[in-house]
Write the structure tokens for this entry.
Amino acid sequence: MVTFGKNNEPHSRPMTNYNDNPYATMWFPTYTNTRKVTDLKKNPKTLILFPDKEKRHFYEIEGHVSFASEEVVDEKWVWWYLYWHPEQENMFWFDPSTMHVDKTIIDVHPVSVKTISMKDVDYIHETYETIIPKEMGTQSID
């Protein structure tokens, strides 16, 4: 996820997302006291970059951000948390409504989507699958 700071400088970071459809609203669980949330509240435009299932192309999605309601956050946070910690599902003390009170969910509503072919990529960093296109240029996200 790429956010843009006060001088429109880009800030990127890896994020967890489970949506299969790059053309639909995507959601990302996070905490409210993060730089990305601060950036997105000031400028709700974002870029999302990820590979297709066959890793022949990358999707680059420009999106507009909103934040989920508290009710939706509680519901999705439980699913997300239990995905990473399934052993805690039957714990008697597990109360998702009070867990991580500073939690939020970033909803990204796609505005435009383009694909980048692997043949147009010079470098891929395997850890985060970061890519550097052959033709580097700046893009306006007005």
Observations:
- The first strand starts at residue 2 and ends at 4.
